[in-house]
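Below is one such record:
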Amino acid sequence: MKKKDTAPQDNVISTTPFPSSKKIYVPGRIHPQINVAMREIELSDTTDSMTRKKTPNQSVTVYDTSGPYTDPSKEINVHNGIEPIREQWIMDRGDVEELDGFSSKYCNERLNDPSLDHLRFGHIRKPKRAKKGKNVSQMYYAKQGIITPEMEYVAIRENQKIQEAKRLSKQHPGQDFGANIPNEITPEFVRDEIA
C-alpha cells in the first residue's frame, strides 16, 4: 500500500492568522500613512487559586514580523512581490530619481538573456539614486531635524502600544545599564538618537 503524501501543496501560501491572535495596524501620528503591523494576542483568564474566580486579562500587543502572510485581507502573489510600503515615503521626499536601467553589467546580461524569462518576477523595479547634491540617509534627515516616516515607524514598533497597556504599570523597570531611554519611545527620540 502506497503511503499518502502529506507534504504541503505546491503553490499554496497561507494567510491564515495565528491562533488566539489577530493582526492589527497602528497608524502614525505625524505620518498617518504609516501602518505598523502588530499582533494582538489574547490571554486566558487568571483563576484565583482560593476562590476560583476568573479575572479577564488584557491582550498583549507585539510587533508582527510575518509580513502580509497572516493577514487574510492581503492577496499574496510571490511573482509580484509584497507591497512596497516605503516606496511612496521615499518618492514624497523629492530627493531621488529613478534610473533608466541597472548599472551592473552582470544584471543587464541576466535581464537580456531570454532563457531566464521563465524565472523572472513581475515586481522588478528600476533602481533609484539621490539627485545631484542630495543626501538620502536617515542620519542626514535626522540632523536636519526631520522626522521621517521610517523614524516614526520605528518608534511605533518599539512601543508595541505600551501606552495603552494598563497592567504594565506594575512591570519591573529593568536595567538600562546607563542608557537614557524614555518610558515611551517617541519619533523625536528616534530622530535624536539617529542624529
